[in-house]
Design goal:
The protein is mainly α. The chain has a single domain, classed as Hydantoin permease. Helix content is 75%, strand content 0%. It is globular, with a radius of gyration of 21 Å. It binds tryptophan. Tryptophan (TRP) binds next to helix 1, helix 2, helix 10 and helix 14.
């Protein structure tokens, strides 16, 4: 049953035009609201440097090996994640039950996109706020009130969420590659340039040193099981791993592209943009006497202060939120792709139909998040609002669990023949290192964090 040397199966949905196209697509998936919206507010909420340092460790020891595993599994299976895991499960371990890993991923992507679309909607709304000069000369209090008004209005938040989901459905319906490559080529460098401009502004606030200390000066007094689990979950979320999203993209990767180098490039870009976002946002927080633990509105309450007081702020602010909307769009597409590929292959419908059905269902579910900030803001259980629960369930449970199963499969169930055939057979030591990580280090780290967070083990 084995596929000698791999590469026998061919993709059902076409191939990326080159390795660069694939890097761009995975970078487009990874770089998004996770870097610029979520990373800074989580860092603020979970005590700064302790969170950042655990996050960086998780990216290297857990994120990178899992990303490589997902890509290699995707490329070897060449189908949607459910079918790929079933096929490879049969070939490598004699069990088709591995398909549930793909199914878990599809559910995860579904749930994540439901709230992602809402936050992305706010980003689109802010393109227009910036363009009409709403931030010009505004102080922290006025900017805070503006955000509260948007989040507090079910109608406005629902409207922008709807618009964003419509765009996502349209793009996915047309196929992953068309347009995506161009969007990412402009978006990532553009975002970097604006972030550097903002970094210069942040350096001039006088609180740059305080922000650097908050983020990087080792202080583990805030460290506990919750922080460690949150940092691990954020690494999964930011790198787009643990829900077979990168696996779905890997299915379209040409056989000769290097998985190791590709993953390294994506991880480096993703992590730099997150750290940069923190170094821009926290100086503004401290210089204006804001609370770093303010929560999910942090990026919307800080950056507008900068745009409102810097020269050319209207244009720069508008461009920033426009690029961030694009970044969110390229991530949203990737969140929908596994489900759409699965619906197409298992129901035999075309891409347009699949994207519409899946997109409409996710859009409807998104109202659970829309209402979490207004009509249902007092409806709280377990972790808080509906949004808080969906976020916790996906980032802190489903993604790490999916990632754990992927690394166990790649490390223990796939033969070293299969995995070394997909990774660079020439890069001997690199391969050995990857194998030690996926067999021992990565699964042990995820299991220990899980045990620690439910109190069965006492790390911190
Ligand atoms: N990584 C994206 C971000 O940081 C979000 C995302 C896209 C994602 N695809 C994913 C998160 C798959 C988890 C799994 O904004």
């Amino acid at each position: 049953m084995s596929v000698p040397g791999g590469g026998q199966r061919t993709s059902l949905h076409g191939f990326w035009s080159s390795r660069l196209a694939f890097i761009l697509a995975v970078t487009g998936s990874a770089v998004g609201l996770g870097n610029i919206w979520k990373f800074p507010y989580m860092t603020g909420e979970y005590g700064g440097s302790a969170f950042v340092l655990v996050y960086l460790g998780a990216v290297l020891l857990v994120g990178l090996p899992i990303m490589m595993s997902e890509i290699l599994i995707g490329r070897r299976g060449r189908r949607n994640p459910v079918t790929t895991m079933r096929l490879l499960g049969q070939e490598e371990s004699g069990s088709s039950q591995w398909q549930w890993v793909g199914a878990l991923g599809i559910m995860g992507g579904f749930l994540i996109l439901s709230f992602y679309g809402v936050i992305a909607g706010w980003t689109v709304a802010y393109v227009f706020e910036a363009a009409r000069g709403a931030f010009a000369g505004a102080g922290a209090a006025e900017i805070d009130a503006r955000f509260s008004a948007l989040e507090g209005s079910a109608l406005r938040t629902g409207f922008w969420h709807t618009l964003f989901m419509l765009l996502t459905i349209l793009i996915v319906a047309r196929g992953v590659e068309r347009g995506l490559e161009q969007a990412v080529r402009v978006m990532v460098p553009g975002l970097l340039v604006i972030m550097v401009v903002l970094l210069v502004y942040a350096a001039g606030t006088g609180a740059f040193g305080q922000a650097a200390e908050f983020m990087f000066r080792p202080d583990f007094s805030a460290l506990d099981g919750t922080v460690i689990l949150a940092a691990l979950g954020q690494a999964f979320f930011s790198l787009s791993i643990g829900m077979a999203c990168v696996m779905a993209y890997g299915a379209y990767l040409p056989q000769d592209a290097s998985i190791g180098r590709t993953s390294l490039a994506v991880v480096a870009a993703d992590t730099s943009i997150a750290l940069l976002a923190g170094m821009v946002i926290f100086p503004i927080v401290f210089a204006n006497g804001l609370d770093p633990a303010d929560g999910i509105g942090l990026v919307f309450k800080t950056l507008p202060i900068a745009f409102g007081s810097m020269g050319g702020g209207v244009l720069i602010g508008m461009l920033f939120f426009l690029l961030l909307s694009f970044a969110a769009l390229t991530s949203a597409i990737s969140l929908m792709e596994p489900t759409v590929a699965w619906v197409m292959e298992s129901r035999g419908v075309n891409r347009g139909v699949a994207a519409t059905i899946v997109g409409v269902l996710i859009w409807l579910l998104g109202f659970a998040t829309v209402f979490s900030f207004n009509l249902l803001q007092d409806f709280r259980f377990l972790r808080g609002t509906l949004f808080a629960n969906i976020d916790f369930l996906t980032s802190n449970i489903m993604l790490p669990l999916g990632g754990l199963l992927v690394t166990l499969f790649a490390g223990w169930f796939m033969s070293s023949n299969s995995t070394s055939g997909e990774l660079d057979p020439q890069a001997g030591t690199g391969y050995q290192l990857w194998r030690i990580l996926v067999r021992w280090v990565t699964p042990a780290a995820v299991i220990i964090v899980f045990l620690n967070s439910i109190g069965l083990l006492d790390l911190a």
